Amino acid sequence: MNSAARIEAFLEMMSAERGAAENTLSSYRRDLEDASEAIGGGLAGAAAADIRAYLDDIAARGFASTSQARKLSAIRQFFKFLYAEGLRGDDPTGTLDSPKKGRPLPKTMTEAETGRLLDRAAEEAGGAAPDGDRLAALRLHALVEVLYATGLRVSELVGLSVTVALRDDRFFMVRGKGDKERMVPLSAKARSAMRAWLAARAEVPAYAESPFLFPASSDSGHLSRQVFARDLKGLAARAGIASTKISPHVLRHAFASHLLQNGADLRAVQQLLGHADISTTQIYTHVLEERLVRLVNDHHPLAD
Fold first, then answer.
1. Burial class of residue 42 (count of CB atoms within 10 Å of its CB; 0-12, 13-18, 19+)
2. In the list 86, 96, 197, 251, which could disulfide-bond 142, CB 3.0-4.6 Å?
3. β-pair partners for 183
4. pTM for this one?
5. Residue 72 forms part of a structural domain
6. Helix runs in the chain, H state only
7. Strand partners, 181
8. Cross-strand partners of 171
């Protein structure tokens, strides 16, 4: 049984029928090819004992339980596909237990730290950039303001089409996971930073004709996630915030946490984040619990 060909067929199905994003497909490919290599190149014909031995091996190598669970999930879906297509008469993953996963709280930032970060970005965009590169400072200011105002995934943010920003600057229509569209509102500060960036962008011939809001001379044609993450860490350091504490994903978490802390509904946050299932958004329930305790302590007549 040709495992490489079976993996390619599975990935084609995930792309064509389920609309899996490129990042998702790349992750599946890595996980399946790693498992196939560990099993001796024969994943498609593997028995339950082979897969259990592989899972024991990656656990022994120190992979986190979340990584083990992700790899097993990819393998499960692969075998479900083979079974559904009649390429195998059984599913060897049916008797395997998923690794026990903890629920670590998402790393986030306080409102004060976020305010310092945004203030520093605005200051540099206003002409105080450390290296004198005002164009880069304007771009970074627009990126951080929009990210904190919308909670976009970093891949959604850097890949935004310029037409999204030109339609109506009060809202962005974003195409997220599964090719689903959602509407996200922009704050007044984000709109202001975006207008300043659009004006500067229009004066750069290499950027003016680009279909992307944040163009770059990369293979994709837009700013890469890695470059944005690096620039964000540099900004954090200049704002007196430990660079190890921040990433684009941490700002997305800050967006959700701060909304909930200030009274937003969990369902509304789910829609804004683009989570298909409310269970994904429920990692933030600790924020709701803290808010309820504070509410009781502040307002209950018998509270100390």
1. middle
2. 197
3. 173
4. 0.63
5. yes
6. 3-16, 22-38, 48-60, 65-84, 111-123, 134-150, 154-158, 162-167, 188-202, 205-208, 225-238, 248-261, 266-273, 278-281, 285-299
7. 175
8. 185
What CATH number is attached to the domain comprising 122? 1.10.443.10
- Span 161-169, mean pLDDT? 82
Q: Using alpha carbons, list the distances in angstroms from residue 195 to 74, 168, 242, 274.
A: 42, 11, 29, 25
Write the DSSP assignment of 190-251 as a string of letters: HHHHHHHHHHHHHT-HHHHT-SBSSB-SSSSSB--HHHHHHHHHHHHHHTT--GGG--HHHH
State the residue range of the domain holding 283.
Answer: 111-295
- Tokens 């995934």 locate to 153
Query: Does residue 77 register a pLDDT over 70?
Result: yes
- Measured between its terminal Cα atoms, the distance across the chain in Å is 70
b or e along 163-179 (b: 16 or more beta carbons within 10 Å of the residue's beta carbon)? ebbeeeeeebebebbee
Task: Give the model's pLDDT for residue 268.
Answer: 86
Read off the tokens for 171: 């809202």
The structure tokens 């018998």 sit at: 302
Show the tokens assigned to 225.
């996630």
Closest CA to 125 of 146, 145, 140: 140
CA 100 vs. chain centroid, Å, equals: 23
- Tokens matching residue 147: 């990210």
Pair 287, 260: CB distance under 8 Å: yes
How many domains are contained in the chain? 2
- Tell me the catalytic residues: 153, 177, 249, 252, 275, 284
For residues 1 and 86, the answer to whether their CB atoms sit within 8 Å is no
Same domain, 67 and 115: no
Query: Looking at this protein, which amino acid is placed at residue 40?
Result: G
pLDDT digits (tens, 9 = 90+) for 229-246: 999 999 999 999 998 889
Write out the two tokens for 47: 């028995």
Indicate if 239 and 153 belong to the same structural domain. yes
